[in-house]
Write a sequence for this structure.
């Protein structure tokens, strides 16, 4: 679900620096984003296991992405998230196009007046080249210590939440 809440004070996340450099190259300066005309043909989505503050993991249940306690035999059901950068948004805010299934499906907030989280059958690498059309599937990631927040780019002030 999408919740409201405050953003964390950003901390440099070395994994995200590597992701952005792999897809986009190094930044010329803090203010200027260097983006190539196309994706690095060898670049692939990065994959992460995500847990909420209650240590619940993500899994697919009847086509819905849900947070649940995954212990024992259920642990194999955990669904990692996949990310690629959105090169058309402000790089210093860490805009990530987010999905699952190894990057084969995207997590979208939709295009209506209110966010409606849904899975779309579109590969993240296709969204990487779509410019502003990838915004509904983009989340600004902030990192503060061991906690990450994901703010919907299409709905500022709204965050991914398991509440």
């Amino acid at each position: 679900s999408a919740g409201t809440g405050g953003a964390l004070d950003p901390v440099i996340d070395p994994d995200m620096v590597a992701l952005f450099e792999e897809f986009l190259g190094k930044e010329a300066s803090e203010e200027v984003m260097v983006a190539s005309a196309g994706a690095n043909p060898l670049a692939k989505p990065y994959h992460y296991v995500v847990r909420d503050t209650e240590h619940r993991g993500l899994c697919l249940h009847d086509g819905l992405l849900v947070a649940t306690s995954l212990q024992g035999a259920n642990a194999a059901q955990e669904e990692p998230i996949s990310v690629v950068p959105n090169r058309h948004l402000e790089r210093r805010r860490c805009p990530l196009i987010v999905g699952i299934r190894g990057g084969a499906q995207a997590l979208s907030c939709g295009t209506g007046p209110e966010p409606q989280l849904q899975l779309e059958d579109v590969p993240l690498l296709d969204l990487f080249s779509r410019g502003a059309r990838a915004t509904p599937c983009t989340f600004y990631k902030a990192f503060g210590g061991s906690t990450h927040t994901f703010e919907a780019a299409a709905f500022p002030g709204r965050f991914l939440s398991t509440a």
Remarks:
- The first helix runs from residue 14 to 24.
- The chain is about 10% helix and 30% strand.
- Helices lie at 14-24, 124-128.
- Residues 14-22+41-152 form a domain with the Trefoil (Acidic Fibroblast Growth Factor, subunit A) fold (CATH 2.80.10.50).
